[in-house]
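Re: beginner question about structure tokens

> Can someone show what the tokenized structure looks like for a real chain? I only ever see the sequence side.

Sure, here's an example I had lying around. Input first:
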Amino acid sequence: MSTTLQSWIAGRWIGKEAAAPLHSALNNALIYYTHAEAIDFDEALSYARKTGVPALMRLTFQQRAARLKALAQYLMGRKEELYAISHQTGATRADSWIDIEGGAGTLFAYASMGSRELPSSNVLHEGPAMALGKNGGFAGTHILVPRGGVAVHINAFNFPIWGLLEKFAPCFLAAMPCIGKPATATSYLTEALVRIINESGLLPEGALQLVIGSTGDLLDRLGGHDAVTFTGSADTAAKLRANRHLIANSVPFTSEADSLNCAILAPDVTPDDAEFDLFVKEVAREMTAKAGQKCTAIRRIIVPENMVDAVGTRLRERLAKVSVGDPSVEGVRMGALASRDQQRDVAERVEQLARGNEVLYSARDGFQPVGEGVSEGAFFAPTLLLCRDGMRNDAVHDIEAFGPVSTMISYNGIDEALALAARGKGSLVSTLVTREPAIAAYAVPVAAASHGRVLVLDKEASVDSTGHGSPLPQLKHGGPGRAGGGEELGGIRAVRHFLQRAAVQGSPTMLAAVTGEYVRGAAVQEGDVHPFRKYFEDLKIGDSLLTHRRTVSEADIVNFGGVSGDYFYMHFDEVAARDTQFGQRIAHGYFVLSAAAGLFVSPAPGPVLANYGLDNLRFITPVAIGDTIRARLTCKRKVDRNRTDDKGVGQGVVAWDVQITNQRDELVASYDILTLVMKRT
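And the corresponding structure tokens:
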């Protein structure tokens, strides 16, 4: 029985009248319809701006990160509902795992990165501040703030869940409402996801809307505070990028397009090496995972001319073992393409690629999908072609069959291999399999110019490698040229993409107020209570302590050398030290840090629970025997992580600015010390 899908617009589900039919990839059975009702995109945008933006802004970066984590947990609790629906897309359990649990994992990753790297506010300081005048009264810095606009995410059919969530996560952290538009063919799975998200009650009103079907005039209604991201074909990306309204209003447009990614087998690898097997396994996996429907799939297999037969034989053996059919049948390792339309498109492109090339493995090698009704499904045989002259054959570098299809291309010498890789005109990812670090050092900088990501795979990396086709939330996903020229993922970099950067100038005191961080030179507050005696809630940015003084003696240096085992000549050899730029013996840098800690630490039990690191440490002026030092400790930054320890005690993170000076008021050393501080509640 078929169901009419609905769009989630302005806080309500829209759609009752059936429109375009959607079919199961497994047997072509009618399973859903898109809806015929037109969407009022002016209403959708107004709702996002007037309801979504204020609702998101009532939360801080940290609070939004906590919501992402809770949402990821909620989705994991209901993942089996999504697996059941994903089956209709032709995906195996392993394929769906990438989409469903990979999507939830991306939320977890951004939640974690947000809790570690973002402040308890809606202003992200992109410092450090810099002096703009001689007298210290005028400074400048950069801040990142929410744009106040709407992000439109247009996604491809191959990852209907991950595709939405990997864009939504950084947008949500950036307080930018999203309107998601999945590809129609598999939009039923995205609709199921959004229904579950709504049922969680975790998102602020207006944070996420869903469009089933056409985007109509949506892009023509966007402004300079909005943003568009696209994942799909390079041709469609080019058409959207050329939208006159987007150009006229300078609307940021980010594209992640399908590309002719490659894997290079370096000339040092032989069939007897473990790396040879790794290469073959990686290629075969990328050909068959998601039935080859991955924007990162290996389309070009670049191998030394003398290895063509060996690689071809091993690949044919692996592909012959891949059982294709309904993923519910035990033993099936590759499912169907997303639709019959996709099946026809791949067949046409394979026919084009086969002209002038050899077909090494295809449907003629005993292709027989298993399962009930599969004869009507969108199945396609793993297909391996061979091009013996890749420098003259343009088709292998221009035509992409978006399915389980790859072409092996022979080369002579690593320079020719790299030239062949670059013929793809820009790709998302390339893999280099080699045993020699010198080859990697030579090849990677060249490959990086035309690829968004480069995987160097050897036996050592294989124990943990996530593989050629696995974009990770922590790293950039995107590529130059044909691949779209955009960037997605990349950790907090992706969040910054949806924020507005502005330069701010003023006095250090004003900059501290704006950024929510202490800026050196700003006014400080000194009081009778030691800053380390204050609970997290009681601490204010700028709370400061100027310590008493300590004169460094020769005994200090000797004792520290004995404790640490550091007998470096600059600390102990008077004659050798006299010939250096310092002209005398100097104290250990780490002794200076230790002495400073002794000056500012409050030793009795209190709210400060632990010191877990130093950032931005610089030794600036040497400390000689007889110099007198003191320290200024100032509360620089507070981050409320909105969580408690195993005893239910709340904690926050406090970064302290430490400046150590000598008797001439010269800066000796500076750094940030990070501490966990207890809350009152």
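Each token stands for a local structural state, so reading them left to right follows the chain. The chain has a mean pLDDT of 93.
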